[in-house]
Design goal:
By secondary structure, the chain is mostly helical. It has helices spanning 2-15, 23-34, 37-50, 55-79, 90-95, 103-118, 121-140, 146-166.
Length: 167
């Protein structure tokens, strides 16, 4: 187990760009924030009220965000894995010091699955590109280990399928 954690930390460190100024860091920071729950919740609430054609999909995605949060948070409290050391992402570090699993990765994949099943094809394709980039950006910015995002992506896949089937 210890060897696996050491490899995870080493691979995660290789992907890290948080301390390197430049375009790659800027893009990673934007992508890392693009999976924020408040951003998605606010946008989906607006869609519910102003875009009737998108209402069902927006409601399904909003429900998925709530389900994802209700599953990720208890796992984080149970596992209690500390985030990697770093400066970037102080809001995440102060409000949620635990990294496993990645809520952003879970949310991004869940939203993608729901979009693929319930939304237009073009949206699902765009999100298929976006979700792994968000997940990798969380590692690149130093707020998650690689295994955190892999676990989050798997959890998001399961939640997304459940939401799409139930709704």
């Amino acid at each position: 187990m210890q060897r696996g954690l050491e490899l995870d930390a080493a691979w995660s460190q290789r992907l890290r760009v948080a301390e390197r100024p430049g375009l790659l860091r800027t893009l990673a920071a934007i992508l890392a924030h693009s999976g924020d729950s408040w951003f998605w919740a606010a946008g989906l609430v607006v869609l519910i009220f102003v875009a009737p054609a998108w209402r069902y999909l927006a409601l399904a995605m909003l429900a998925g965000i709530l389900v994802t949060a209700s599953m990720v948070f208890p796992i984080k409290l149970l596992v209690r894995r500390r985030r990697p050391e770093g400066e970037w992402g102080s809001i995440y570090r102060s409000t949620d010091p635990h990294s496993f699993p990645s809520g952003h990765a879970a949310r991004a994949v869940m939203l993608t699955v729901v979009a693929l099943v319930l939304g237009p094809a073009w949206l699902g394709i765009v999100m298929l590109v976006w979700a792994p980039l968000v997940s990798l950006a969380r590692v690149a910015m130093g707020v998650h280990y690689l295994s955190d995002v892999v676990a989050g992506m798997f959890l998001g896949l399961l939640i997304g399928l459940a939401v799409a089937i139930i709704l």
